[in-house]
Amino acid sequence: MVERMKEIILPFLPLGIVFISWTIVTWESWVDLVYLTLALLSWLLGAFMIRYKLETKRETAQAEKLKKILSRIRHDWANHIQMMIFFLQMKKEEEHYRYLKKLAEDVNKEKHIGVFQSPLLATFLLTIGVEHTNWKWHVDISKDIRISMPEEEDLLQMIKSVADWFDQVGQGKYDWAQIQLTLSEEEQVVYVTFEVYDYDHKRIVLPVTDAWDRLEERVSKLGGKISLSRKKQRMIIQHIW
After folding, report:
1. For residue range 178-200, what is the model confidence (pLDDT) as tens digits?
2. CB 198 within 8 A of CB 155
3. From what superkingdom does this record's organism come (predicted)?
4. How many other CB atoms are found less than 10 A from the CB of residue 172?
């Protein structure tokens, strides 16, 4: 808190000094003009310093996020290469072929993210595993989905809210291995489905806690409707646009 106050006050310290000096000097028109000019210059200097600090912080945050993304990509591909080398060494040609085919299918699905107009939504879906690292995320998007930019922005906030909900309720759930996120559209209704799988690729029953009511309210304010399947193994957001 103290550091935050310093960041706000220090850039405008020269402006404060000018005003204090102005009040104790002789009141003459030319003196007023000089101090008015100094006050204006001090204000511009303070505004420039604050803007510079904000831009520096934003660039630093973006660079840090990019660093995490590149690190995650490097880690994932290192694992893929190790698996392919293992299959080749063990002469398991069928497993090697299936693994390569699965990689190609995943890359093909990722390119469907390009259907979105919002760069923020597309970037979040591509990097959701970097933002929320507790589990592996698998994103599957219908290539036929088409929604407007404002609706995409609402959809982004809904998905972020659900991801935050998973982070909260999934603490200590060591059997959770992967979350499947699927987006599709039917008759101007966008469906976002979330399913959690364990390490044996079996769906897990989702917990209903006090946080669920807050999540329902949040999604409703954004124009959506969220629900759980009868067996509570699937979470679905419906968003009409």
Report:
1. 999 999 888 888 999 999 999 88
2. no
3. Bacteria
4. 6
Phi, psi dihedrals of residue 138, rounded to the nearest 5°? -125, 120
Which CATH homologous superfamily contains domain 114-240?
Histidine kinase-like ATPase, C-terminal domain (3.30.565.10)
Sign of CA dihedral 80, 84, 89, 92: positive
The token pair at 5 is 């106050």
In the block, tokens 């893929």 appear at 80
Specify whether the CB–CB gap between 177 and 197 falls below 8 A. yes
SS (H, E, C) the chain: CHHHHHHHHHHHHHHHHHHHHHHHCCCCHHHHHHHHHHHHHHHHHHHHHHHHHHHHHHHHHHHHHHHHHHHHHHHHHHHHHHHHHHHHHCCCHHHHHHHHHHHHHHHHHHHHHHHCCCHHHHHHHHHHHHHCCCCEEEEEECCCCCCCHHHHHHHHHHHHHHHHHHHHHCCCCCCCCEEEEEEEEECCEEEEEEEEECCCCCECCCCCCHHHHHHHHHHHHCCEEEEECCCCCCEEEEEEC
Among residues 54, 146, 147, 140, which one has the least CA distance to residue 102?
Answer: 140
Amino acid symbol at 184: S
Per the confidence metrics, is the pTM higher than 0.85?
Answer: no
Six-digit token string for 122: 């597309």
